[in-house]
Write a structure and sequence with these properties.
The protein has 2 domains: about 100 residues, 2-Layer Sandwich (Potassium Channel Kv1.1, Chain A), CATH 3.30.710.10; about 140 residues, no CATH class. The chain has about 325 residues and is of the alpha/beta class. It is built from 10 helices and 12 strands. The strands form 4 sheets. Strands 8, 9, 10, 11 and 12 form a 5-stranded mixed β-sheet that branches. A 3-stranded mixed β-sheet has the order 4-3-5. Strands 1-2 form a two-stranded antiparallel ribbon. It is elongated. A hairpin with a 6-residue loop joins strand 1 and strand 2. Helix 6 packs across helix 8.
Amino acid sequence: MVFVYEGAKDGVRSLRAPERVTLIVDNTRFVVDPSIFTAQPNTMLGRMFGSGREHNFTRPNEKGEFEVAEGISSTVFRAILDYYKSGIIRCPDGISIPELREACDYLCISFDYSTIKCRDLSALMHELSNDGARRQFEFYLEEMILPLMVTSAQSGERECHIVVLTDDDVVDWDEEYPPQMGEEYSQIVYSTKLYRFFKYIENRDVAKSVLKERGLKKIRLGIEGYPTYKEKVKKRPGGRPEVIYNYVQRPFIRMSWEKEEGKSRHVDFQCVKSKSITNLAAAAADIPQDQLVELHPGPQVDELDILPNHPPPGNSYHSNNEPDPDSPSPAV
């Protein structure tokens, strides 16, 4: 590139060779015209050699060279230079799309179908899907999920369990014989769109990363059985009813906004050493009682906070919560 300028005194037009700067990337030197960077002022290199040099933020080393793009390979950087010349980056052979994506993010270069060209369309579509999933979930989070979290917080809860049902799902529980304890504490989102979004494990991974970035704790996303309606009631010997519910597999989100979920902060139980040995196993092993206290510390979780496990899909529920006489006895 050639620059044309007029002399300040005689107005004679003359020619000046373009400026050249040397960039060092991955121990490789690249001699370029910095004007190609300033033509893209929103990129990192555009800011470095534009406003950065004007305000003396971008400085060369003792040899007059600029060390940039730390952590990016010279092969990737050579491909990225094409973006400043033609607006297109062609992924080099042997370079993965995630590696190219990381370099583009670092250099503030747009990563989309109009910028990136590669042979591995599967990997490219995967990255574009991740971008789309992130934008979509951020919308779902604000519009559907956050209001339910606020409702839980206002009722004094420290966590939230949300089940995603389709628009056509119907929940009709029997008031006399409801499902096993636990489901009544969950909240429901009726959204076929959100249900289809969470069907993909990749979308669930993206959603989990977004929730982590927003500061939430103890995040669990997956698929679980949820009872929708009572199928039938059987009479067992002794007149005890057996209620069978229909279960559907639906996505769920469980999360907390507290750092110490499940731990009691109000009461600190101290263990008092006893002079008599009441543990027969310890007595047989001749373990001093003071060491026994250290080996078996008291529980740190409030047992009132521990809820029973959800029944697997298709399991029955006895209304009086008595043990099933037909079930096998536990092993001794």
